[in-house]
């Protein structure tokens, strides 16, 4: 039950926040947006990590921090996609999206394995601090990114009107609608195994934190392989379509 509540606190904020963040990411500078998000993630994770080390974090604090992290993650992904779109030419956008997905899943796989080893040696607090330090490095890296100056902002309407137009586009285009509902079905029906993975690793397989980390790393490699497959030459992409 506790695992389910924590997972819900991490994922449910994405539902209302991510679409709104997608609208505002096109209105603001997504690079600065990401810097703020990564700094927020760094602060939250370091505070929780230090609190865990000092024995001052209970269920309420952990749940609140998880929900806040979920909100920040919901803001991060649309802004990151907006940055990718403004970093490369349109002809290379498919490659950029594939590389972005490949890097995301590859680092997830490495991160799960490393977190298990780190937890074994230094405890949960050290894992939170490590995530905070990584988020700080990401914020510093984003400060060095220069977006394409040739990007011309489109004529904007009210944010809610644009949001409604986005939902309308998804609903009216069969392929896009199928992809969105297919992704939702995968998350709802298949990825729910991650909620029970800590209990399975501990109670069924009798593994420690390192074993749990490797299990999660292996599961992420399943998603990493298709992402790598999609990183192909732009000419190949044009012939395919």
How would you describe this structure in keywords?
mainly alpha
Can you tell me the overall shape? globular
Number of helices: 11
Number of strands: 0
Radius of gyration: 19 Å
- Portion in strands: under 5%
Describe, in plain words, how this protein is organized in 3D.
- With 241 residues, the protein is mainly α.
- It is built from eleven helices and no strands.
- It has helices spanning 2-11, 14-25, 30-53, 59-87, 93-122, 124-142, 159-172, 174-189, 193-204, 209-229, 234-240.
- α3 (30-53) runs antiparallel to α6 (124-142), α5 (93-122) packs antiparallel against α10 and α9 runs antiparallel to α10 (209-229).
- It starts with a helix and ends with a helix.
SSE diagram, text form:
Layout: H1 2-11, H2 14-25, H3 30-53, H4 59-87, H5 93-122, H6 124-142, H7 159-172, H8 174-189, H9 193-204, H10 209-229, H11 234-240
Helix pairs in contact: 1-4, 2-4, 2-7, 3-4, 3-6, 5-6, 5-10, 7-8, 9-10
In short:
This protein has 241 residues and is mainly α. Helices cover 80% and strands 0% of the residues. It is globular.
């Amino acid at each position: 039950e506790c695992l389910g509540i924590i997972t819900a606190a991490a994922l449910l904020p994405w539902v209302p926040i991510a679409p709104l963040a997608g609208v505002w990411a096109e209105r603001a500078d997504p690079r600065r947006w990401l810097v703020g998000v990564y700094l927020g993630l760094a602060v939250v994770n370091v505070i929780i990590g230090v609190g865990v080390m000092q024995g001052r974090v209970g269920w309420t604090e952990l749940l609140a921090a998880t929900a806040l992290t979920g909100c920040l993650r919901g803001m991060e992904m649309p802004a990151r996609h907006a940055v990718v779109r403004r970093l490369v030419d349109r002809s290379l956008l498919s490659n950029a999206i594939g590389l972005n997905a490949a890097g995301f899943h590859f680092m997830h796989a490495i991160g799960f394995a490393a977190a298990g080893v780190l937890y074994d040696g230094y405890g949960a607090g050290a894992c939170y601090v490590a995530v905070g330090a990584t988020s700080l490095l990401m914020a510093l890296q984003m400060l060095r990114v220069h977006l394409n100056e040739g990007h011309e902002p489109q004529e904007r309407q009210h944010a809610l009107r644009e949001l409604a137009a986005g939902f309308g586009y998804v609903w009216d285009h069969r392929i896009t609608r199928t992809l969105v509902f297919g992704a939702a079905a995968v998350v709802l029906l298949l990825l729910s195994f991650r909620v029970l993975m800590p209990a399975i690793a501990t109670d069924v397989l009798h593994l420690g934190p390192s074993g749990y980390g490797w299990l999660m790393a292996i599961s992420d490699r399943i998603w990493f392989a298709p992402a790598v497959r999609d990183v192909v030459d732009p000419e190949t992409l044009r012939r395919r379509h």
